[in-house]
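Regression test case RT-17, inverse folding.

Input:
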């Protein structure tokens, strides 16, 4: 992935992206949005210098042209805000667009995150997604990340994303080796060996058993173990996972020099969106 670029879409992928200060593993098993009445989408953007990396994981309930319209809108918002460190404007714009389309039966949940490499700060905004999991390298432990309700959500009279009470945001300070795992609802809906739904507690238990020193294989190992744990999990659909790990890599000299020039060009679009 390059600077001034938006990557992703709603197609199946198993990819690792490296940006200044952060590595991102993405795995998505996408289905047909037209057939299933919607789909997960995953988007990643990088600013002109590479200091700002933004990810969006959204579950959109819409079909045909309306699905394509909503996903294109979210992609365009990623482009428009590619060089903005704060994400409140993005959140407000996203909520407004989804409110407008709620009259047409569109419903969506979303998890937006922005990583600013110089301060190692990860800003999260969760609108109806399962809470992400946080790994602290110093303690070798995982925990559930929960935030506070945002003022913007509370003031929304007709939520286009989810109910205002589910609209949360927070900031995390990451150290080298810390990781954040985010995922779509399909993961929490998996079943354990007794046939009971995992929920966020069950997911946390299974993630805590993985080898955190080998993030390249964590997502694949997690999904494989779940498929083996219960027969119904073998048909997991529309499952998308993001694993982000903080690193000590910085912005290159070349990207620092070219950043001002990149501001005058269009954001590169490397997305694949199918209806």
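Golden output:
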């Amino acid at each position: 992935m390059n600077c001034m670029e938006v990557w992703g879409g709603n197609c199946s992928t198993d990819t690792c992206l490296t940006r200044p200060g952060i590595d991102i593993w993405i795995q998505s098993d996408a289905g047909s949005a037209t057939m299933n009445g919607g789909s997960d989408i995953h988007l990643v953007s990088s600013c002109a210098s590479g200091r700002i990396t933004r990810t969006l994981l959204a579950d959109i309930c819409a079909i045909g042209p309306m699905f394509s319209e909503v996903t294109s809108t979210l992609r365009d918002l990623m482009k428009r805000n590619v060089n903005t460190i704060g994400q409140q404007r993005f959140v407000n714009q996203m909520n407004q667009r989804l409110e407008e389309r709620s009259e047409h039966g569109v419903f969506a949940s979303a998890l937006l995150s922005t990583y600013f490499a110089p301060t190692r700060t990860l800003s999260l905004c969760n609108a109806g997604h399962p809470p992400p999991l946080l790994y602290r390298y110093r303690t070798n432990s995982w925990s559930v990340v929960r935030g506070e309700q945002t003022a913007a959500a509370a003031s929304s009279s007709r939520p286009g994303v989810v109910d205002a009470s589910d609209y949360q945001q927070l900031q995390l300070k990451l150290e080298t080796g810390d990781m954040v795992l985010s995922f779509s609802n399909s993961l929490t809906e998996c079943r354990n060996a007794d046939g009971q739904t995992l929920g966020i507690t069950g997911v946390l238990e299974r993630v805590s058993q993985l080898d955190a020193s080998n993030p390249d294989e964590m997502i694949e190992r997690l999904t494989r173990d779940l498929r083996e744990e219960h027969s119904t999990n073998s048909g997991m659909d529309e499952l998308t996972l993001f694993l982000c790990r903080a690193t000590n890599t910085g912005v290159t000299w070349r990207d620092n020099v070219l950043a001002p020039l990149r501001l005058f060009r269009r954001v590169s679009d490397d997305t694949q969106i199918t209806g």
